Amino acid sequence: MFPKYNVIVVGAGHAGCEAAVAAANMGSKVLLVTMNMNTIAQMSCNPAMGGVAKGQIVREIDAMGGYSGIVTDHSLVQFRMLNMSKGPAMWSPRAQNDRMMFAAKWRSMLELNKNIDFWQETVPGLIVKGGICKGIVTSLGLEIESDSVVLTNGTFLNGLIHIGEKQFGGGRAGEKSATGITEQLTGLGFEAGRMKTGTPPRVDGRSLDYSKMEVQPGDEKVGKFSYTDTPVVKRQLPCHVTYTSLAVHEALKEGFDRSPMFNGRIQGLGPRYCPSIEDKINRFADKDSHQLFVEPEGWDTCEIYVNGFSSSLPEDVQFKALRKVPGFEQMKMFRPGYAIEYDYFPPTQLKMNLETKLIKNLFFAGQINGTTGYEEAACQGLMAGINAHLSIKEQEPLILKRSDAYIGVLVDDLVNKGTNEPYRMFTSRAEYRILLRQDNADVRLTPIAHNLGMVNMDERLDRVKNKIENARIIERYFDDTSIDPNLINGFLESLDSAPLKQKVKAKSILSRPNVTLENMRLALPALNTYLSQYDDETLTSAEVTMKYEGYIRKEQEMVEKMDRFESLRLDDAFDYKSMKSLSIEAREKLHIIRPRTIGQASRISGVSPSDISVLLVQSGR
């Protein structure tokens, strides 16, 4: 009934979709298995992509040939570039999306790929022989063979939904949980744990009074996520902002005795930086209010996502409290918020290519590794799909360094440090964030994707080369062009910047605080005429390079120093437990993680600089 596949991907969420297209676009024959074909790429939580650090990840996925950025642009209802008042390392694109358009576009793009087949069924087990994963077993008892398997089970592994004192099995509202895989893997020696996440109520937008809320419009100049020729929206939907109050908090507290969070029924740890509303008012009792974002679910629906009101309190408590929020006095609820507990596998059990250490050709990606967020899941799927293909071709794995991408930071953190709470990406996790900007993801990563043989990358690489060359031409122009004080002093004085006493190079003016390429163009018509031949991406790249060249150079020097450690390989046969010169904690961590390089070892929690010195001596460096 089935041929033998190169890669089977179990689960069709954000991780599974990216894993499938990555492997397929490198030439593998892929089977994508999902419990429900109608929920492929469903946005289970908020209808949005990107945000701080997450937007950079989506652009990196796109630069590597993934589809998340393309799908986001095609289903976008609002675009905002966050943190524009800060430096470019912090600029982060964020989109509100039409939930149904997002899923439909993903499914359409998957179905257009001739290397991807589909199967709708639950997968309770794997075929494992001699320590190698050979395929899957379905709930109907079908055995489907493959060279490798990527598990992207999301919140479905033994998923348990909590609403007040009610609890029932499920991986998502209205969908059953998945059983069998956890039990099989723990029987094979894997360690499993429990995590928790949650979602807020969905409400009827027709019942809200938006006049009592703050309007949050999209950017006037609409940006994009994809480096390809995706459409730019002509109109946008507004979001709104409102606030809880002490009255809301008191109404919520009435249900605390029935809260699964506070009475011990929920055992898993939830995301620290995205807590439920009851957790927020309990932990931050000194705060009188909390911000709520009122987000539309799409163009053709009145359904609203109440961002910031995630809850597992009883539905009557949620309803009563929400009706005390300004603008929600006549609110009608579509469905209550809930919490969900699910199984995950601590990611220290993975190699850097996301293959498990215990079972060859078995890869994990997404929430099964303890992460939270669409973007974090999608980039893991991309890397797992690529490496599953490379593994069966017996080629070197693709491992992105921390200086290459946020994706590299995420994988490195998971494998070397692990996580006992849902891992979310922040710019603060990246020590080289001025190098890992959202504007240069294509420059950093498209050549890598092209070298991998990803389809349709020739044109994209040419585009990157043109961008690099044109940015250099602009930089030379600014280096060579002198500006007369009479042409610029009025502009400088309007910014409270010291006027010129003599001609200076254009680059010197651009380097001043508050001076941007955009306002320089307004002040200097000749400059504007010259720059009008270049696109926005190229202009941004040139501007950032010129304004922040000192910081960029400093980070590049740091990378070069650290690369020395990354090039020092460790012997796979090292018996760390017998190295008495290492600390006890270092022996244990090194034995479990088995780092490939000195650099990787240095980032393992509990391995000290003195332990690294011992490893350098032991390895003859």
Blueprint of the fold:
Elements: E1 5-10, H1 14-25, E2 30-34, E3 48-50, H2 54-63, H3 68-74, E4 76-82, E5 92-97, H4 99-111, E6 116-120, E7 125-129, E8 132-137, E9 143-151, E10 160-163, E11 166-169, H5 181-187, E12 193-199, E13 202-204, E14 214-216, E15 239-243, H6 246-253, H7 277-283, E16 291-296, E17 303-307, H8 315-322, E18 333-335, E19 338-344, E20 362-364, H9 374-392, H10 406-417, H11 441-452, H12 458-480, E21 482-483, H13 485-494, E22 504-505, H14 506-510, H15 517-523, H16 525-531, H17 536-547, H18 549-566, H19 584-593, H20 598-602, H21 609-618
Parallel strand pairs: 1-2, 1-9, 2-6, 9-20
Antiparallel strand pairs: 3-5, 4-5, 7-8, 8-9, 10-11, 10-19, 12-19, 13-17, 13-18, 14-15, 15-16, 16-17, 21-22
Short description:
Among the domains are: 202-335, Beta Barrel (Elongation Factor Tu (Ef-tu), domain 3); 458-554, tRNA uridine 5-carboxymethylaminomethyl modification enzyme MnmG/GidA (Arc Repressor Mutant, subunit A); 567-618, DNA polymerase, domain 1 (Orthogonal Bundle), CATH 1.10.150.
